[in-house]
Structure formats: structure tokens, C-alpha cells
């Protein structure tokens, strides 16, 4: 039975399109699909033939009949043992979420190729986002992927599924911290120096100055905290990047040395501590021996109490 719609390829201009065949000719030599199709190209008007990809799919479909014998069907059924694997289940879940999440994301991030900041360097930009179709809903594909990863992580209650995203976010925050430090340094440090001025009663503008003992005028300046300084400190504190958080302060180092058993830095003191520990171990060993001997005496000299 001939196809009602066919994918065509125009060899003159290279245009691909789907259309109703202009002419259908029987081709008995093609046992897998005994028909040949042609149509005028939508762009240049030359004759276009059925796309080779679709011809190959028709042939593959005709040859893929599957097992027919009982033994073959049993062997084919064995192929599904152990499936789906956790990875396959996750991929299936991803695909199941796809259409619903597309609809939800499209509300906030419709597909606008080249108009979002994330479009620069996007691996979807230029082909999938180029035009809308049933297979490519009108939503930003990168946002959809982000939404679906979070949806899967929350459904599975597994925050480790978002590790790659969090690492990227942390790297971006560190880059912002570095840029803040460079900006503050370029502006002259943690303070900003500005000129003081005022308006007189007639609305005239004047610079605020004072005169020294030699009657030389000097400009008055105002020193203010750099506006990025507070933001920088907040970022460092909230991301656990202080010296104390990284274990770099003298107190933290001392506490860690104590936990590791480094009670002294001097070699003589270390030796005395080692001897002290040996003495404690010897006393513990003697105590265990005394307890064992007490049990043996109880057995040899049993005391019977009449009740």
C-alpha cells in the first residue's frame, strides 16, 4: 500500500521536506516497499525523490520481523532479564517527564533563539531551537533540561543527582568573588573617596573646601565603604570560605593536632608523652590480669550461702 505522505530530498538545492507525492510509480524490484515517489521541490521546483533515510527505514522495518519459532521467541524474551537497569529507569523517567515539563517551562522560558544570555555557546541553539514542531515544543531546551533534572532529583529524594549542577554554580560564585576582589582593588581598596559639595541658598553649586593656617584652600573629601565589600564578605561567609572554615587559623590547627595525638612539638616532650602512654597501657594490662585472677579465686574458694 503506497504512503500518503513522503519525506523528499531535492538533489538540486538540497532542500528536505515532507509532502503528498506528486507521482507514485510501482517498483516491483523493491520487495520491501514496491513503490517509488516523486514530487516538485517546494523551493526550486525541480523533481525531488524520496529521502534515502526513509527508504532505509522502510527496508529495515520489512526485514525486522522478529523471532518466529518457539526457541527464537524464548531466546528473545531472555534479553529483557535484568532490565530496566537503574540507568535505564532514570532515562525512562526523564523521557516521561519531557512533554509535561516542556509545557510547564514554556510558560516562563519560551524558545527565543539568540535572545537569552545562555544562548551563547548553547548546544541546542541553531537547530533544535530554530523552528517549532510537534517534536520540538516552543520552550528553551536548556531550561527544560534543568527543570527535568530537578524534578527527577526531588521525585527520587536524591540530592546527589544535582551534584554536577551545584559544582557549576559554586564555580560561578567563586568567579564572582574573584571579580569582586579585583574590582575593589582596581577602585583603590575597600574605601571610595569622593568630593564633598553643597548648594548655597540661591541654588549655586560649590565644592566643600577648608583653609589651613597658611590660608591655602584644600578640598574636603568623603570616605565611604566600597559597596561591593559587604556583598563580598557575605559571599565568603555563606560559602564557607573563611580561614576558620578551611582550617587555616592557628587555633583550628592546634585543635586538629590534639585530635591527631600531636600533644607536643618538642622532641623531648614527645618522648615523655610516649613514655606516659606506655605506662598507662601497662597499668591497664595489669588491671586486666588482676580481674582475671579474681574470677579464678571465686571458682576455687566457692562460698555457699544458706538462704
Distance between the termini: 106 Å
Q: How many strands, which pairing sense, and closed or not: the largest β-sheet? A: 5 strands, antiparallel
- Helix-strand string: EEEEEHHHHHEEEEEEHHH
Low-confidence residue ranges: none
Percentage beta strand: 5-15%
Q: How many helical elements?
A: 8
Q: In angstroms, what is the radius of gyration?
A: 40 Å
The general outline is flat
Average pLDDT number: 77
Structural class: alpha+beta
Number of DSSP strands?
11
Q: Strands of the biggest beta sheet: in what spatial order?
A: 2-1-5-4-3
Percentage of residues in helical conformation: 40-55%
Task: Kindly describe this structure.
The longest helix has 34 residues, at 267-300. Among the domains are: 6-64, no CATH class; 86-157, no CATH class; 248-290, no CATH class. With 307 residues, it is an alpha+beta fold. It is 46% helix and 14% strand. The chain has a five-stranded antiparallel β-sheet with strand order 2-1-5-4-3. A hairpin with a 5-residue loop joins strand 9 (209-211) and strand 10 (217-219). The chain has helices at residues 52-63, 70-78, 86-108, 141-156, 163-186, 227-238, 250-259, 267-300, and strands at 6-9, 16-19, 23-26, 35-40, 47-50, 191-195, 197-199, 205-207, 209-211, 217-219, 221-225. The radius of gyration is 40 Å and the shape is flat.
Amino acid at each position: 500500500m503506497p504512503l500518503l505522505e513522503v519525506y523528499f530530498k531535492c538533489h538540486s538545492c538540497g532542500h528536505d521536506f515532507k509532502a503528498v507525492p506528486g507521482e507514485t510509480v510501482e517498483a516491483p524490484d523493491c520487495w520491501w516497499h514496491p513503490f517509488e515517489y516523486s514530487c516538485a521541490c517546494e523551493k526550486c521546483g525541480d523533481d525531488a525523490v524520496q529521502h534515502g533515510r526513509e527508504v532505509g527505514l522502510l527496508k529495515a522495518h520489512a526485514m525486522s520481523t522478529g523471532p518466529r519459532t518457539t526457541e527464537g521467541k524464548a531466546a528473545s524474551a531472555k534479553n529483557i532479564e535484568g532490565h530496566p537497569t537503574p540507568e535505564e529507569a532514570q532515562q525512562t523517567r526523564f523521557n516521561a517527564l519531557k512533554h509535561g515539563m516542556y509545557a510547564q517551562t514554556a510558560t516562563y522560558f519560551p524558545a527565543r533563539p539568540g535572545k537569552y544570555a545562555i544562548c551563547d555557546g548553547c548546544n541546542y541553539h541553531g537547530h533544535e531551537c530554530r523552528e517549532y514542531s510537534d517534536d520540538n515544543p516552543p520552550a528553551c531546551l536548556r531550561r527544560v533540561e534543568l527543570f527535568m533534572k530537578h524534578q527527577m532529583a526531588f521525585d527520587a529524594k536524591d540530592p546527589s543527582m544535582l551534584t554536577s549542577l551545584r559544582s557549576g554554580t559554586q564555580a560561578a560564585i567563586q568567579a564572582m568573588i574573584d571579580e569582586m576582589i579585583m574590582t575593589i582593588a582596581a577602585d583603590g581598596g575597600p574605601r571610595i573617596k569622593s568630593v564633598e559639595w553643597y548648594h548655597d541658598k540661591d541654588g549655586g553649586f560649590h565644592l566643600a573646601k577648608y583653609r589651613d593656617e597658611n590660608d591655602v584652600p584644600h578640598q574636603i573629601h568623603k570616605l565611604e565603604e566600597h559597596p561591593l565589600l559587604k556583598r563580598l564578605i557575605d559571599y565568603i561567609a555563606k560559602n564557607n570560605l573563611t580561614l576558620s572554615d578551611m582550617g587555616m587559623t592557628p587555633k583550628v590547627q592546634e585543635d586538629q593536632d590534639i585530635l591527631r595525638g600531636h600533644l607536643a612539638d618538642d622532641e623531648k616532650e614527645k618522648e615523655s608523652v610516649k613514655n606516659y602512654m606506655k605506662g598507662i597501657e601497662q597499668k591497664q594490662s595489669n588491671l586486666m590480669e588482676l580481674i582475671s585472677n579474681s574470677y579464678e579465686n571465686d571458682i576455687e574458694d566457692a562460698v555457699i550461702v544458706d538462704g
